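Researcher: Next sequence.
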Amino acid sequence: MNNFTFYNPTKLIFGKDTIPTIAKEIPAGKKVLITFGGGSVKQNGVYTQVTEALKNHEIHEFWGIEPNPSVETLRQAIALGKEKKCDFVLAVGGGSVIDGSKLIAAAIPYDGDAWELVMKRDYSQGHTLPLASVLTLPATGSEMNAGAVISNKTTKEKFAIYTKTPVFSVLDPQTTYTLPEFQVSCGLADTFVHVMEQYLTTNGQSPLMDRWAEGILTTIMEIAPKIKQDQNDFDNMATFMLSATMALNGFISMGVTQDWATHMIGHELTALHGLTHAHTLTIVLPGTMWVLKDQKQEKILQYGQRVLGIDIDDKDLAIKMTIEKTESFFRSLGFKTKLSENNITQSTIAEIEKRFIQRGVRLGENRNVDGPVAREILEKVM
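Model: Next structure:
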């Protein structure tokens, strides 16, 4: 196990009817910028709960943070926050709203343009406003980590920035009951691949991290069909919500190497074609597993045996069955897992390879996923 420093200061407030607690969690006298996505929170009662809880605070609302939040939209929220002299940001929504709000919280006290902060990549030591969240869509784990992924529509780019974790996050599983089926599928897939990026790497680093990761993977595969049948089951939705948080709050990555090649390749597909982030992951991960199966062999076999129940002596066949069964799981969630099924051609693969070469990108636990390897991965899932 490698050396590590773990610190996660987010206070997690989990359970039924917990949204009103934000009234006492946000200090009196704060000027709160509340950020939202679309209007679904008005339909499911979340908006009413939030505004009622903050009736004694000065609040200002910003609506319209889209999936794959764009810096162009976030600049408008930043301008509002500066104008109203807001000193606290509350994100109400899913991972995109929370991601976008992390940049908003960093950029309101910043003198330059918000995209400059994105290009710094690591702003964890910079001055930011305190941020909190009310989560309505489990997926990204953004409610309990420092990462955010921001798009630039003008340049057709998408990059991660690391700022600061929310000071607190409220997770009421009841908010998930009215989510569209596709968004739930995206959340399940996103959670699953987040774990795989931290788990399917170097063998023998930490049996504890392996077991924690395998527990989340197994849980997601077990509850996915149950959620598909009944999205109003509190216990299953609670398990889903907490699994998404635990998948990317640092708990399963302590002392182990990480990959993230699948994510970075997926970001390019989103930037170039607008595919939902989780959808890109379901396309790319099987390709990553196929192309890197030699270096990931032991972990693929371990995952296949412990999570999927594939226990045969023929290693090549076991790996084949493991990758195919993983792809079948994604397809059971409703995803088209081939580039060609999503009208993506060889020209996109060439563009991604070129971008990676120009940036000097080297990804994966061994830093051997460069432009040509990214091309190979994408061609495998054409």
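Model: The chain is about 50% helix and 10% strand. The longest strand covers residues 88-94.
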